[in-house]
């Protein structure tokens, strides 16, 4: 006891007597329990713990640049098992998301060139952890504009504060962006200037109202001078087209992203002309499921700001219109060090809209050394290291179809590639939802003002692959 | 102003040096040794000074730098005394950062950590619920055994707090205290029992989490809260939903009888599950069979269904496993659509979901057949995703779709990703054995692949063909001849060994070729791989037994080579074979049976899915993903033969009478029957009652 008091005095002139007395009182109150059993001391730190124990952020060159522990500290050396698995995998995409080590389990995600590696000690649904890690990455993206090593390092304090709020004892606490933003304000240049002058802080001191209410996703007291509600209907076509141009598989995946800047507590309902098109829908928690079940209307009190309202799939029974076609002839000659490459893109079933933003990406076989091509439109690049050919086409004008053709130089002596590479195609069509989905109307209840409403439609290529 | 900027410069300069110095100390003494490294002391001096200054901005700067050090995994423990003094700071940001620091280092500096306790004790009584909650969070995160009684007291008080947010934090604190001192279990269970009764959606998930960790076997605590949990579920936050659903799955398996009919046929499923949504079928089902589902069982199944629409993959998976494990088989079909939806997500989610689908698709093919094309492989998929998809496609293959699938496989075989191409060939082999109609087609296809330019593809084909031929006692002389020719070109040892074994097994069917192959092999014996050498010896032995006239000398030559081989396995095998096949005085009775031994009918290998037996793990769990029992895995029990007393779930009338009018009571009893129309009101009333 004496040396304890000694330490106190050495270090702590500033602490008031009152406080010290309380501490000593706490001591005497608890000393009985300490004596009780030998187990008490030795059990420290051996406790089991559910969910996420620690988190390590690792960059592409294998540096651990951030660690956070929610329970006892786990040594960085646990990541060695991860590095081992990473070495075994052919590329980053193939690092197994779940790794078992002698004392821990590692569950990791790969996002924006970073690995988020979490340390787990006991049974937990792996998707729980994976989904949470992605939510962390989303939050970083939301706060810092990008989820990169530099952004995280620059904002390490905010990152730490966020992680502290998002997880308590390894169990998610607050993951809604609206709540987090009330607790910890995102960094802006203006705010940091203001803070340095006024001495105010980035950390909120009251519990966000959302945490307690039945609508945890919305903060209270929202006020805008211009009240606006925008919806983006974005549809992506996933397709596999075979050699002959016929569709092996095609499906439409859509999302409705909303940007809601409305004061107060607006209660919105969004209805569609043809809601039956939506075959399988997943909802933001704000949507009242029962209204959808009974009336096929999206009824909700929205979060403030940007969020994804629903994602949906259009029933695969419906035939999917494929907006582009590709004519291709790619051939490699036997016993010769060159091959021919010729692709042309044209519009097909484009509903009278322009197809723009077309990009073609091709992973050429390893034996390809270089490509000498000419294009009638846009520009192309070929990376001889990764063997990726990218052709940035731009817009299609039906009068003159864009094409790319020329010679392929192969490594001499190597056998000719077995298979022709697949073409991955990106495109965009504005003002069109390819499924034909149409928003009927948006009604607002609960507030008196008249909001400005807008709906935008875009169709894009999702995982759109043409086999050759 | 000028002095200010000066000190700032110094700080930043010093900061770097500090970090360097820290790295040196951290390797030697993790628990901060004062004064041992005088230079270090000096480097951290400026941080200490800043912490002791009376300007909040300086303190904040210092704390930010310290948190930066912690984040990088550097040791900042020696600043403990200076930091801990700021625990009572008025500035909330400083305070929070001090909390971060405390939680990180309290365990190492237990004595000093005690200095902060009284501040937390005071904060626990703060009128602001956020401050109460965060004080409890930090207090319970300080892993110092001496404060266990204080923590216990704080948890008890917080569990009765008016704010549900504080009660939620109390539920989290239960787990922390339990891991610090398991001896508190009994008292903690009391708190859990109390919190389980809580009607707030905010608390539900956290307390069930605590329950799962502290006393998962005390299923009796759930009875009275079962219906409430089912009804609250839709409004609980997503993470809590996952935990509750997993717990309720386990609960249901102990409390209800099996809804699975005896001899539930796959065919039956396939027809039924598309219509599973309509209640009509449900009713007819019930009329036909004596089995009636407990209304509480039905309640759980019905109330989890909307969550299949959740944006959170973990929730969707949790509901899917619940349906898989506890719903009637005819109703489980609705989960497939949602699971397939998750395949649009990132690769990690895909990986886990595909694994679970792979397990499901073995047992109930029909569930995923309509989505066959969703499992088609794209060249841009990572290999691990490709192989999982392939696995599922194999499981789904049947007479009707096999021709489409084989056409699809042809594309895969040509893939640039050779590992994947090899896996496809294995798959074709499995399809060939499972679906007899296409065995010949597959075999022909594989034989075509033998002339492929890629060695890995050829080797894999050889191995698979070997397995297929072994399964079919039919004559395949042509294929064997073709493969014998391959020996001249192919170099992959496994493939060479497979060919040799195949020729040996069928040496009587190819009497002209076999001896010639042996002749060629004798020439190259010394340069072959060990695996191949063993098979050459086997081939020699088999030929010696069947055709000793032509091959006697050759075999003896080989046995001599083998006798002096560097590898002891080969020497061993040589000795064994010589004793067995070459009769001499010493050779025992065994050699009479040599032919039977070598040319016995061998059982064909079974080509099976690696996911075949995984379903004994609860789906969606870590154990299922790893296919090993993870620490803390809670076994899913088998359905009881006879259902335990269902009345235990009835909520006592007295308790209701206290808060509700008789009308309210009636509502509660009805809730099992018509949840959708009632639940909203009920939740509202429960919320208001918890607020009051």
Summarize the structure in words:
The complex is a heterodimer of chains A (468) and B (692). Chain A has eleven helices and 23 strands. Chain A is α+β, with helices and mostly antiparallel strands. Helix content of chain A is 23%, strand content 37%. Chain A is globular. In chain A, the strands form five sheets. A nine-stranded mixed sheet of chain A has the order 11-13-9-8-23-21-16-19-18, with no helix packed on it. Chain A has a five-stranded antiparallel sheet with strand order 2-1-5-4-3. A four-stranded antiparallel sheet of chain A has the order 14-15-20-17, with no helix packed on it. With 692 residues, chain B is mainly α. Chain B has helices at 2-28, 38-52, 56-71, 80-84, 92-105, 110-123, 129-141, 148-158, 164-180, 185-196, 201-214, 220-223, 226-232, 238-255, 266-272, 279-288, 295-304, 313-326, 334-342, 347-363, 383-396, 402-413, 418-434, 439-449, 455-471, 477-486, 493-505, 513-524, 530-546, 548-563, 568-581, 594-598, 622-626, 653-659, 662-670, 675-691. The relative contact order of chain B is 0.05. Mean pLDDT of chain B is 80; it is low at 1-40, 264-287 and 654-692. At the A-B interface, helix 1, helix 2, helix 3, strand 2 and strand 4 of A face helix 3, helix 5, helix 6, helix 7 and helix 8 of B.
């Amino acid at each position: 006891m004496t040396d304890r008091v000694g330490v106190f005095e050495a270090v702590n002139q500033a602490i008031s007597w009152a406080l010290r007395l309380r501490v000593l009182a706490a001591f005497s109150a608890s000393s009985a329990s300490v004596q009780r059993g030998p187990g008490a001391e030795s059990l420290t730190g051996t406790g089991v713990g559910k969910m996420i124990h620690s988190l390590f952020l690792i960059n592409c060159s294998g540096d651990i640049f951030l660690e956070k522990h929610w329970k006892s500290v786990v040594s960085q050396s646990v990541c060695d098992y991860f590095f081992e698995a990473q070495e075994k995998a052919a590329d980053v995409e193939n690092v197994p998301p779940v790794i078992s080590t002698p004392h821990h389990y590692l569950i990791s995600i790969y996002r924006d060139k970073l690995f988020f590696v979490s340390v787990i000690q006991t049974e937990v649904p792996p998707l729980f952890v994976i989904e949470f890690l992605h939510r962390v990455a989303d939050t970083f993206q939301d706060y810092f504009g990008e989820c990169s090593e530099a952004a995280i390092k620059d904002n390490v304090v905010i990152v730490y504060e966020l992680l502290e709020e998002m997880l308590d004892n390894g169990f998610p606490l607050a993951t809604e962006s609206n709540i987090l933003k009330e607790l910890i304000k995102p960094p802006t240049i203006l705010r940091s200037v203001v803070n340095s002058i006024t001495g105010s802080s980035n950390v909120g001191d009251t519990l966000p109202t959302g945490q307690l209410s039945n609508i945890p996703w919305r903060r209270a007291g929202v006020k805008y001078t211009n009240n606006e509600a925008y919806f983006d209907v974005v549809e992506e076509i996933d397709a596999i087209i075979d050699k002959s141009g016929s569709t092996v598989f095609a499906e439409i995946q859509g999302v409705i992203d909303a940007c809601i800047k409305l004061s107060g507590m607006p209660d919105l309902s969004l209805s569609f002309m043809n809601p039956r098109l939506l075959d399988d829908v997943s909802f933001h928690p704000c949507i009242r499921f029962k209204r959808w079940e009974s009336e096929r209307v999206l009824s909700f009190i929205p979060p403030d700001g940007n969020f994804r309202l629903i994602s949906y799939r259009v029933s695969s029974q419906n035939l999917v219109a494929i907006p582009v076609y590709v004519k291709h002839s790619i051939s490699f000659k036997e016993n010769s060090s060159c091959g021919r490459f010729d692709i042309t893109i044209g519009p097909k079933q484009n509903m009278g809209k322009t197809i723009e933003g077309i990009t073609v990406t091709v992973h050429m076989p390893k034996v390809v050394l270089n490509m000498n091509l000419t294009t009638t439109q846009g520009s192309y690049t070929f990376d001889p290291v990764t063997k990726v050919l990218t052709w940035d086409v731009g817009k299609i004008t039906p009068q003159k179809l864009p094409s790319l053709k020329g010679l392929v130089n192969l490594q001499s002596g190597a056998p000719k590639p077995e298979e022709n590479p697949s073409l991955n195609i990106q495109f965009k069509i504005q003002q069109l939802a390819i499924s034909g989905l149409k928003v009927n109307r948006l009604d607002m209840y609960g507030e008196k003002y008249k909001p400005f409403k807008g709906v935008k439609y875009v169709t894009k290529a999702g995982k759109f692959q043409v086999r050759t | 102003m000028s002095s200010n900027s000066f000190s700032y410069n110094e700080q930043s300069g010093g900061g770097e040096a500090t970090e360097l110095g820290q790295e040196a100390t951290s390797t030697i003494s993790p628990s901060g040794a004062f004064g041992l490294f005088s230079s270090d002391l000096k480097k951290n001096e400026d941080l200490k000074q800043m912490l002791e200054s009376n300007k909040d901005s300086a303190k904040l700067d210092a704390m930010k730098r310290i948190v930066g050090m912690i984040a990088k995994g550097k040791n900042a423990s020696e600043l403990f005394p200076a930091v801990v003094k700021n625990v009572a700071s008025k500035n909330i940001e400083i305070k929070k950062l001090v909390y971060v620091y405390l939680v990180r280092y309290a365990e190492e500096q237990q004595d000093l950590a005690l200095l902060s306790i009284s501040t937390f004790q005071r904060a626990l009584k703060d009128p602001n619920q956020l401050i109460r909650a965060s004080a409890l969070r930090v207090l319970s995160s300080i892993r110092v055994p001496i404060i266990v009684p204080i923590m216990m007291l704080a948890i008890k008080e917080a569990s009765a707090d008016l704010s549900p947010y504080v009660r939620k934090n109390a539920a989290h604190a239960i787990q922390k205290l339990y891991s610090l001192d398991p001896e508190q279990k009994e008292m903690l269970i009391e708190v859990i029992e109390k919190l389980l009764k809580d009607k707030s959606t905010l608390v539900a998930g956290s307390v069930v989490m605590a329950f799962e960790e502290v006393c998962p076997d005390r299923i009796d605590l759930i009875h009275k809260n079962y219906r409430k949990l089912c009804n609250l579920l839709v409004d609980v936050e997503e993470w809590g939903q996952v935990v509750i659903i997993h717990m309720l799955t386990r609960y249901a398996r102990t409390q209800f009888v099996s809804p699975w009919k005896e001899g539930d046929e796959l065919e039956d499923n396939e027809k039924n599950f598309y219509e599973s949504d309509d209640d009509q079928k449900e009713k007819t089902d019930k009329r036909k069979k004596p089995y009636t589902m407990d209304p509480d069982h039905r309640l759980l199944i019905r109330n989890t269904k909307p969550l299949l629409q959740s944006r959170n993959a973990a929730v969707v998976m949790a509901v899917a496993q619940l349906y898989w494990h506890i719903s009637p088989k005819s109703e489980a079909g609705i989960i497939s659509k949602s699971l397939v939806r998750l395949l649009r997500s990132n690769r990690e989610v895909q990986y886990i979901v595909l694994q679970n689908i792979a397990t499901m698709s073995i047992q109930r093919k029909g569930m995923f057949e309509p989505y066959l094309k969703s499992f088609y492989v794209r060249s841009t998929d990572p290999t691990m995703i490709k192989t999982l998809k392939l696995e599922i496609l194999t499981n789904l293959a049947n007479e009707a779709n096999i021709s489409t699938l084989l056409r699809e496989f042809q594309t895969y075989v040509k893939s640039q990703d050779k590992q994947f191409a090899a896996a496809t060939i294995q798959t074709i082999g499995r399809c060939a054995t499972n679906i007899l109609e296409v065995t010949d087609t597959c075999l022909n296809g594989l034989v075509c692949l033998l002339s492929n330019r890629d060695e890995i593809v050829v080797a894999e084909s050889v191995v698979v063909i070997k397995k297929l031929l072994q399964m079919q006692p039919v004559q395949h002389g042509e294929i064997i001849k073709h493969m014998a020719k391959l020996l001249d070109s192919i170099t992959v040892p496994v493939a060479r060994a497979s060919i040799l074994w195949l020729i040996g097994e069928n040496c009587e069917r190819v009497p002209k070729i076999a001896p010639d192959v042996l002749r060629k092999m004798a020439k190259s014996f010394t340069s072959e791989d060990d695996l191949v050498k063993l098979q050459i010896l086997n081939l020699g032995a088999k030929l010696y037994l069947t055709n000793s006239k032509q091959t006697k000398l050759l075999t003896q030559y080989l046995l001599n080579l083998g006798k002096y081989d560097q590898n002891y396995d080969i020497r061993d095998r040589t000795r064994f074979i010589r004793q067995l096949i070459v009769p001499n005085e010493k050779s025992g009775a065994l050699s009479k049976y040599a032919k039977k031994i070598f040319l016995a009918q061998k059982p064909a290998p079974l080509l099976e899915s690696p996911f075949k037996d995984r379903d004994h793990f609860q789906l969606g769990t870590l154990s299922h993903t790893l296919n090993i029992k993870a620490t803390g895995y809670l076994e899913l029990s088998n359905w009881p033969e006879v259902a335990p007393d269902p009345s235990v779930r009835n909520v006592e009338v007295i308790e209701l009478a206290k808060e509700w009018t008789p009308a309210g009571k009636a509502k509660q009893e009805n809730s099992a029957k018509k949840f959708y129309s009632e639940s909203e009101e009920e939740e509202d009333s429960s919320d208001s009652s918890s607020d009051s």
